[in-house]
Amino acid sequence: MTDSLYAGLTQLGGATVQPKTPEEAVLERVPNPNPGDRYVVRFTSPEFTSLCPITGQPDFAHLVIDYIPGDWLVESKSLKLFLTSFRNHGAFHEACTVGIGKRLVAELAPVWLRIGGYWYPRGGIPIDVFFSTGEPPAGVWIPAQEVQPYRGRG
Q1: Annotated catalytic residue 37
Q2: Which of 65, 116, 66 is nearest to 93 (CA)?
Q3: pLDDT tens for each residue of 44-93
């Protein structure tokens, strides 16, 4: 890989401004250094935050994103900025989780992607949201997400 492959990156290696909304956030990608191999990339965001669109109160989740790259990898700083852009964004758990998955699919065209959104209770009920692009390809080791369901103080 040469520096020319990264010439279009605008966020990596420099000061960046936090995007105010997910729509404003720019997801950047870099070439997959192993395009012929099938392997899983995992990102975990244990402190994901968004806002309830009705009450404006904060909602918290543990997100786990797994994908099998095609030609592209998501650049991790841009992903972090994208995820933190939800902090002041009002949307239901389902819209956040599925929207993140669909945005990654649109930007990366992965072979396969899944996202698990493990949301902490709102109104006493935890809501877990799962999205995937289908069945994963055979022969690829995909570890379980292993996020424990919310158990409260039992």
Answers
A1: no
A2: 116
A3: 999 999 999 999 999 999 999 999 999 999 999 999 999 999 999 999 99
Element (H, E) at 94: helix 93-108
Q: Give residue-wise pLDDT tens across range 121-140.
A: 887 888 999 999 999 999 99
Residues annotated in the binding site for substrate, as ranges?
Answer: 74-76, 93-94
Residues 30-45: b if buried by 16+ CB within 10 A, e if exposed: bebeeeeeeebbebeb
In the chain, the domains with their CATH numbers are: 39-132 (3.30.1130.10)
Q: Which two tokens stand for residue 111?
A: 């072979």
* Helices and strands (H, E) in the chain, number of each type: 2, 6
Q: Which of 37, 52, 66, 71 is catalytic?
A: 52
Query: Is 96 among the residues known to form the active site?
Result: no
Separation of alpha carbons 42 and 142, rounded Å: 10
